[in-house]
């Protein structure tokens, strides 16, 4: 299970970065907030009730300075309401946040790093670039966005020798396939952005991924491939649960049994609902487990993953 924990905090300050994007400065109430490295994220509960949406946000900081944390939040009209709630907060307002986790850490032994970002996916790379100062590693950042008015950190990044900007309003397009075709044999590739970008990176970066040099961070689930109803057998409790094609294992277990499964994000990135898989083959859709861990087929995230067979047996 994940080691993250909840704590109280409050909003210190806000700042507009671009249209619909606000920077939030947070202060944890706990003076012993853990140290972290670039690429880390935290979870925020967007509301005061236990069932309020829980969203993940990349930390803009390369490390913790002992006093405040910084994130950027894009207002998503079609989201679950979390971004709208956060945009409505005023300095001094209380909130709930978690300790940090890092699923997007830099590889210290890599000779060079290729960063690919689109839209609000620029946020983890702000921290990574700060962490790269003073290092001998080479890096390149390729950042695509609709227009400067809608993109965060464009002014700060413009003119940087290792940064290339792609302004769609001026006709600039990021050719992911061409970019990855020229990637070095030992380079590590990092990508964060909307699903369209991630799909292009995964399609063009198969060889890089097989060598363990492709690192993806999503801020939304990929489109569901669909699937049939399947059965989950809960070994310890002796229950059998039927999971419909349009629901998660987590929802089915909570709806049909009295078993309590701890969960937070319900989007496959926090690891809280990780459960041992005793038999069957899972269709992994999380971003918490590494490719090797997913291939081992010995654990599964109940909130997003499904079955690639008719029956899964879980240690519940």
Automatic annotation (TrEMBL):
SUPFAM superfamilies listed in its UniProt record: 2Fe-2S ferredoxin-like, Ferredoxin reductase-like, C-terminal NADP-linked domain, Riboflavin synthase domain-like
Ranges where the 2Fe-2S ferredoxin-type domain occurs: 228-316
Highest taxon listed in the record's lineage: Bacteria
Keywords on record: 2Fe-2S, Flavoprotein, Iron, Iron-sulfur, Metal-binding, Oxidoreductase
Signal peptide: none
Xref: Pfam families: Fer2
One GO molecular-function entry: 2 iron, 2 sulfur cluster binding
FAD-binding FR-type domain boundaries: 4-107
Name of the protein this chain belongs to: Oxidoreductase
Naturally occurring in which organism (per UniProt): Aquitalea aquatica
Upper classification of the organism: Bacteria, Pseudomonadati, Pseudomonadota, Betaproteobacteria, Neisseriales
């Amino acid at each position: 299970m994940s080691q993250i924990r909840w704590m109280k905090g409050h909003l210190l300050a806000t700042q507009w970065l671009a249209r619909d994007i606000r920077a939030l400065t947070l202060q944890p109430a706990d003076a012993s907030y853990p140290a972290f490295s670039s690429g880390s994220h935290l979870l925020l509960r967007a509301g005061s009730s236990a069932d309020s949406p829980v969203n993940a946000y990349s930390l803009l900081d390369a490390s913790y300075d002992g006093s405040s944390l910084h994130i950027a939040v894009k207002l998503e009209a079609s989201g679950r309401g979390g971004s709208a709630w956060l945009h409505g907060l005023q300095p001094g307002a209380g909130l709930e946040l978690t300790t940090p986790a890092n699923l997007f850490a830099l590889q210290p032994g890599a000779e060079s790093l290729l960063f690919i970002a689109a839209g609000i996916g620029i946020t983890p790379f702000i921290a990574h670039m700060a962490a790269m100062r003073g290092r001998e590693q080479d890096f390149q950042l390729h950042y695509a966005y609709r227009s400067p008015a809608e993109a965060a950190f464009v002014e700060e990044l413009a003119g940087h020798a290792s940064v290339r900007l792609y302004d769609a309003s001026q006709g600039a397009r990021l050719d992911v396939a061409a970019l990855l075709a020229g990637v070095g044999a030992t380079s590590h590739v990092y990508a964060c952005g909307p699903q369209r970008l991630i799909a292009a990176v995964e399609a063009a970066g198969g060889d890089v991924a097989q060598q363990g040099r492709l690192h993806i961070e999503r801020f939304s689930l990929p489109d569901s491939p669909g699937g049939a109803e399947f059965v989950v057998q809960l070994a310890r409790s002796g229950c059998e649960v039927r999971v419909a094609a349009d629901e998660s294992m987590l929802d089915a277990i909570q709806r049909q049994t009295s078993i309590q499964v701890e969960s937070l994000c319900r989007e496959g990135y926090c690891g809280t609902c990780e459960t041992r898989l005793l038999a069957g083959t899972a269709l992994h859709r999380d971003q918490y487990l590494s490719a090797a861990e997913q291939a081992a087929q010995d654990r599964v995230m109940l909130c997003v993953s499904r079955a690639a067979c008719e029956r899964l047996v879980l240690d519940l």
